[in-house]
Amino acid sequence: MAVPAPRIRDMKRSGIREIMDLAAQRSDVLHLEVGQPDFATPTHIVEAACAAATQGYTTYTANKGLLEVRESITAKLKRDNAIDVAADDVVISCGAVNALFESLVALVSPGDAILLPDPGWPNYEMMADTLSAQVSRYPLLPDEGYIPDLERLDALAAEPGAKVLIINSPGNPTGAVFPRWVIEELVDIARRHDLYLISDECYEQIVFEGEHVSPGSLEHDGRVLSVFSMSKSYAMTGWRMGYVAGESSLIDLVAKVQEPVVSCATSVTQKAGQAALEGDQSCVREMTASYRARRDVVVDLLRSGGLLINEPKGAFYILADISAASSDSYAFARRLVAEKGVAVAPGLTFGPAGAGVVRLSLATDLDQLRTGTQRLVEAVSQ
Ligand code: PLP
């Protein structure tokens, strides 16, 4: 009897989904687990998509995407990220997740090791499992604003088989924004150990303090792939558009992978993305200001309840310390749904470092966020 691929059968499910499914069985749950903007896509972007559909942008595009959209991406990369690439050095993808996966497919062979942050976005590990790659986790340091433990990372990077370093700033689930010196060190570690560096910058625009620094602006020996998303900055999660930029020969490989995976990103979405990148950016500033105001409220509540680890400087998540109540954040999150009607993401889904923490999403309406955080504080102190 034929059997399906064991590595997929045995792949761990995202704990966020598990809690979402549990919470979906009740109608009175406050949802603080989901990481997607609660704003509508700005009208000018939706209108551009409607116009594109009627103008015939309904066919396949080149694997890399429509040239005029890639040109608007290169202008944005130059202006906002100090990354200077040609339109041919960009692949437009179906969300950052697609760009990250295709980049890994292009770089990694079975058995190679991918260095991942702990805690970090669970999908990285799922991608590694899909590719039969090894996972090597480098710690982020809570007491230092969740920047990477550079000494430990350096040691892991020196191990045989290490091939790709994934970094994520602003970070999910930590809200860390790595300062310039850290990005410089990370680029240096990649160079010294001859690793590829994939930089997941999908929260690049959502920064409350500090500056976002793209590693692609600091290195010129072609080992960095810079991945971006339209989902978070422009409240476009369902449109599915991201992009990846890098050195020509690497980008050509990513485009080659794009052919059998999705062929091209959705044509109408690409035109919507162009309108987003070229249009008025005040929508991004307004949404970011809103996440920041919500962060301030949650930080105060967690601080007075003794659960604050540190203040996120970007993205739209905050980690809460629940270790006084439990060292099994899965069990705690299930109990919080059952007893308090609040859904949060269990820290363990982001890696072993998440044992005694849960993640709250700031992409939630302020009233729900306030009540949900208060109930979380009560649950830990009971
Ligand atoms: N990278 C990180 C760290 C994320 O948190 C997410 C989405 O939650 C993504 C990538 C995927 O973004 P996209 O919607 O562009 O696929």
From TrEMBL:
<keyword id="KW-0032">Aminotransferase</keyword>
<dbReference type="GO" id="GO:0008483">
    <property type="term" value="F:transaminase activity"/>
</dbReference>
<dbReference type="InterPro" id="IPR015422">
    <property type="entry name" value="PyrdxlP-dep_Trfase_small"/>
</dbReference>
<dbReference type="InterPro" id="IPR015421">
    <property type="entry name" value="PyrdxlP-dep_Trfase_major"/>
</dbReference>
<keyword id="KW-0808">Transferase</keyword>
<comment type="similarity">
    <text>Belongs to the class-I pyridoxal-phosphate-dependent aminotransferase family.</text>
</comment>
<dbReference type="InterPro" id="IPR004839">
    <property type="entry name" value="Aminotransferase_I/II_large"/>
</dbReference>
<dbReference type="InterPro" id="IPR004838">
    <property type="entry name" value="NHTrfase_class1_PyrdxlP-BS"/>
</dbReference>
<feature type="domain" description="Aminotransferase class I/classII large">
    <location>
        <begin position="28"/>
        <end position="375"/>
    </location>
</feature>
<dbReference type="Pfam" id="PF00155">
    <property type="entry name" value="Aminotran_1_2"/>
</dbReference>
<dbReference type="InterPro" id="IPR015424">
    <property type="entry name" value="PyrdxlP-dep_Trfase"/>
</dbReference>
<protein>
    <recommendedName>
        <fullName>Aminotransferase</fullName>
        <ecNumber>2.6.1.-</ecNumber>
    </recommendedName>
</protein>
<keyword id="KW-0663">Pyridoxal phosphate</keyword>
<dbReference type="InterPro" id="IPR050596">
    <property type="entry name" value="AspAT/PAT-like"/>
</dbReference>
